Model the fold of this input.
Amino acid sequence: MRDRIQAAVIAAALIVLAAGVRADNTVTLLNVSYDPTRELYQEINAAFAAQWKAKTGQTVTINQSHGGSGKQARSVIDGLEADVVTLALAYDVDAVSTIGKLIAPGWQKRLPSNSAPYTSTIVLLVRKGNAKGIKDWDDLVRPGVSVVTPNPKTSGGARWNYLAAWGFALKKYGNDPAKAKDFVAKLYKNVPVLDSGARGATTTFVERGIGDVLIAWENEALLAVEKLGREKVQIVVPSTTILAEPPVAVVDKVVDRRGTRKVAEAYLQFLYSPQGQEIGAKNYYRPRLDEVRAKYAQRFPAVPTFTIDEVFGGWTKAQSTHFADGGIFDQIYQPGS
Amino acid sequence: MRPDRIVIAIAAAAMLLAGRPAAAQAPPAAPPQSLEELAARLRQLQTDLATLTGSAGTPAGTATDGHAGTATSIEALRGELDELDQRIRVLGRQIEIDKEAAVEKAKTTPVVVASPEGFQLKSADNNFQLRLRGYVQSDGRFYPGNDGPIVADEFLLRRVRPLLEGTLFKFVDFRLMPDFGGGTTVLQDAYLDLKFSPAFKLRTGKFKSPLGLERLASALDIPFVERAYPTSIVANRDVGVLLFGDVAKTTVAYALGVVNGATDGGSLDVDDRDGKDVVGRVFVQPFKNGDNEGLKQLGFGIAGSNGTQRGTILTPNLPTIRTSGQQIFFRYRTDATAEGTTFADGAHWRVVPQAYYYNGPLGLLTEYVAASQAVRRDEQTARIGSSAWQLTGTWVLTGEKGSYRGVAPTHPFDTKSGALGAFELTARYHVLEIDDKAFPVFANPTAAARSAKAWAAGVNWYLNRAVKIQADYEQTHFEGGATTGDRKTANEILTRFQVGF
Done:
């Protein structure tokens, strides 16, 4: 009797254990990205999933999370389980690496072009007719011009916007930081509302009808023109602007814990492939590959640009000088002013 | 822009502003009749807006700059109106952004909850939780016709249990529950659950042994003040490791573990022997997810344990069995000598088939326990079997559904509305029998009864989810257990006032 009871209990346990085990050939990734990349990664994800399925037989589902780049980085540091981050600027990925200790140092050297598979730049989007006659950055500081740009404290795109304006002012005023500060302060006095991300700022300008000009990613501006039509908005390319290099990185600790490193790395490498670059260009991101760039040359006119390293000494210095608590942005911008 | 369009636009702006607290106090204005009135109204709106937004005056570059408060032309009004329109749009957008920010903040803000389920503190993602619960049971025990010091009527605090539960890093649960009932301190539950998935959870610590159906029900939910006889011969709490979970879309619950091995009806904190008990239970609710409401709460299963139990003269590790009123009617011989004390000495197993069925207000619960324990008294040994079963019926009079987890009143007690809560009638019959081989060598037939058969009836009043009042009457008939004939029939009235959250 005793032996039979023991055998029955063990058999029941084995049946239960067997029922709980299931063979699984699916994998999910979470791509935590910045605000305006929704459409880009929807297309990238579908293309990569098809390629990965054909190559490995495994079904990959890539979930997306979007928001202001700085806010997204904070979410990952605070526990959002991103397999990859595709953020607006290297500083935010650095934060995930140095503060969150989730990405190994030297991440920027793991992929070509400083881990930035595509570039963009900052342009001005105005309403049809350009009633305020906006042609360049210095038109944005005129009294009566209402400027829409997101909050540099939370948005990577907004930081690019700010630095593009600052770089223009430095050039205009002979590298005088005080005059550049005054210029940017005047510009932000004309900003009636600060959204937390670039997509929110586009909503403010396009859907809510606020402001005379939107400072925007080139891709976001081109997308707005495509959706609304040239009869409603038009792009003004300033005399000089900044070259934005949004980086991508695998979140090492997460992929190692989840066992998704192989597919996550393949996902980011796909961004550099001809197919990935083509999708990027279709979504208005400037491609790195020469042949794709040549194909879309008309879409992306040559613009005089400067880099953050050239003018600001890199992201770390720019961040601490301009956007850290008590930095220049805090000095020149007071909410409600 | 035509004047009538300006009037419409201003009226729309005024309506927007009228929704704001400051403007809400002003009486509705009559439509402007002239350009001058329009201009005056526009300026008033600008002033109201400036007050609402906290900004001073109108911003530079507006149409008023060039007119010094005397704007009377259509063009000037158009400029001012555009300015006003922009400011209202900004205000509206700012409210949207503030709402979005509030939603985002809520995603990371810890949540404090005070509810009938207790008090709770948790992170926004629920990965970290701390729940403070607890319950108190204040009982009365009365023995009509049995006067005297041995079975004195009494009031007592049966259970006083603060309960701390929580979750750490999403997949670790813990529970800590001491009991101060009866003026003593006992650690009832103290365990950690590692939740790999709903189907695979690993529990370590001190916990209820997965054997008896009624034992596994919370003390807050049992239909009678005290559990029936089957609970007397299954383990209470034990210390060990338990793999458990729900499979087959939660229709099958399983548990399989290795524990120190508690005595029948007992709890165990430490073990001084190597031999461990294997315990297991499978419980099936085949129609739980089906459409047939009448079968959803049908559950049945089987549990068992197998191991060795050894005691000593000073710690015999054998059960003492009591009536519901806690009168002892069976115990093995013990006098602290080798010749006069029976103690556990070998194989100990239990088999526990069990089932319940609840349909609407009616409920039935039944279980059977067959147990065997090898015992020794001096040079004499034997395997003593014991068995117990119960059949318990419940009927909720006030229309609520009965369940294994108690009754939730549809209309909680409220003197103002006249709501009474829920009432439940209960009845049960339960039997316990001890192997004849126990007598007279291992148990004294003049003091220990061979069997007990009891019937009971009771009423439960659920004032709300937290408060329950119970009253039971139970009559127990014994076989043996007296110097001559049978032990006197026990008549017991048990009451309980319970507060649990």
The longest strand of chain A covers residues 118-127.
